[in-house]
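The freezer alarm interrupted the setup, so I double-checked each line after restarting. Inputs confirmed:
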Amino acid sequence: MAAVTGARLLAVTVLLTGCGERDRIVVGAKNFTESDLLAELVAQQIERRTGLPVERRLHLGGTFVCHAAIVAGQIDLYVEYTGTAFTAVLKHPPVADRDSVYRAVAAEYAARYGLVWGRPLGFNNTFAIVVRRADAERYGLRRVADLARVAPRWRAGFGYEFLERADGFAGLARVYGLRFAAPPTAMDLGLTYRALADGKVDVIAGNSTDGTIEALDLVALEDDRRYFPPYEAAPVVRRAVLERHPAVRAALDELAGRISDAEMRRLNALADVTRRDIAEIAREWLAAHLP
Amino acid sequence: MSAPPVLEVRDLRYGDRVAGVSFTVGAGETLVLLGRSGSGKTTTLKLINRLLEPTGGEVLVAGARAAGLDPTRLRRRIGYVIQEVGLFPHFTVARNVGLVPRLERWASDRIAARVRELLALVGLDPDVYGHRHPHELSGGQRQRVGVARALAADPPVLLLDEPFGALDPITRVELQREFQALEGRLGKAMVFVTHDVREGLLLGTRLGLLDAGRLVFLGTPEEFRRSELPEVRKFMEAVA
Amino acid sequence: MSCRRSGSSWKRSREFGADVSLLDFYARNSRELLLLLGQHLYLVALSTGVALAIGLPVGVLLTRRPAWRGPVLGLANVFQTVPSLALFGLLIPLFGIGAWTAITALVVYALLPIVRNTYTGIAGVDPAVREAGRGMGMTDGELLRLVELPLAARVILAGVRVATVVSVGIATIAAAVGAGGLGVYIFRGVATVNDTLILAGAVPAALLALAADGLLGLAERKLVWRP
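Predicted 3D structure, all chains:
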């Protein structure tokens, strides 16, 4: 008797955790605060609207890590940026028009990977070329093109992904004619702001919606030559998951266009500067905006 | 007036291990310190070259208070031979013997000559043994080197702590005989610690018997043989 | 985990950059490779040197003050158990981003093998040798210089060997804090799921560790006194 029950229990356990589609959603995130925040927001939204259990895998790794994970089915969903998908993943040369970029990635992701792009969340998180305010004032730096003047005497510091990506440092240096005295210092992305503030490097590539830019008395330079494509944030989901749980689509669509640049910056600052708990920030935001 | 004795020990104390020991040793004399294990003989020896610091009493070397001298300088004027020998394994025999002269910054040819002289003195052919290392030597040969080393800087005093104790009986007898022959020629004041009565009677100009940290007998070998003291009789019976 | 997907996912992840062979990569990036190799060697050499300069005297001191042995070796042991990435992170506020944080962390990790082996090597010298030396009038310094250190050299060098090999490995983490070195390739490879890049950093690091081990082993055999 006990043996039969045990065998049944084992079979059920294997079925639940093993092969085949799960009844829970796995949400991933890239290895920076904003991605973790958005993942938490999306996860909580799905939980409250569909009742499905959601497993978070935050701070997984960079773009390529998350892409590999979703393609392999190890995560079901993560928030990606249209420009990143367009240039880094699909390896197209950058294009400036928002809508064409979105349409292109949505079509190709569906065709090649069986992944569906949700509607954009409402903000554009482009790369921000950031310098210290004191330097910006001293050398009259307002646009990235102005950097070319000081670059030969300056040190740049970047995270590993920015150094490797086609829409990253190599292209930037070429388009703006930036020639630094030495190759950029490579470090963990999270350390670049500190390195800039401490004076170890003079220019970094942050995100335009980072909360720490103002807090550390830094300035983002204008991308006057429109080197960077638009980076609209939107959820990317495995088609199989949407087919099995259509309610997820509706839950995600509710978030469309709800977060402006300023709003994202505010949320990032709450997490990075005020150091509030990410889950709480997400909970508060949802309660306030989508009761 | 005669010169002060080379070595004088006055009421030497070390806790209760050495409880007021006094003796003198002149040049050319060998004082054998005899006693059972734990009687304080090795301790007494170490008090002389200040490897242990006396808790009471005085040691005088050539009339100068040992306590007033820098211990290092004192020890370089006192030859020290121990049972385990303690040759430096990474030095050749020649370098081992020449240690103190080298520390004293003698000229290298003077050191080389002295080393040859001493090796020959202890019965080791310098050309054969000079460049060898201790591990290539037998126990008896090592102790010969040990004695040569102790004599290298020509110190007035020589301390020997059971130098032949770790050797096999045949080698021991051999070295005792050779040592006896050397004693007269060297003219040093020697303190020789042993628990072997026969060795003591053979090598000593005088014998001192230590019992529980006290010197209960001090006299010539003849006087030792004839003594009626119970402690002495016990030792003599063990030999008989 | 979705086992249904695993086969296709492996193929899919390959498309990200394992198409360049390792040798091709080196041929095209030889200058950068040499630069990173140089940085790596600099980190390891400097930190091992500093660890030796600190650890050797401390090890000697422990033989003179046996009461300190427990606390000092205990402390060095604790340092060793701190996960390397964590230690790098903790040192950033003190030494900033860059080589100094990395070097400090590497020194910390190299200390235990060096201190411990110095202590063990010297303590292992035959007490009779020490007694004979003292008895003949060697000062503490002469004893150390002429007897104890030469006799302990083999064990001490073995400690330096361990410290160096460990350092080569941990120095790959230095790239996370902007100190350069072969870890730069590894981190770039991890960020972009590029096996070639990861190997481009890992293989030379492993070879470097082997070479250091071999060279120091040779020195151990040839240069120092053996019983």
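Quick read of the result. The interface with chain C takes residues 49, 51, 72-80, 82, 84-90, 99-100, 103, 135, 146, 149-150, 159 of chain B (CB under 8 Å).
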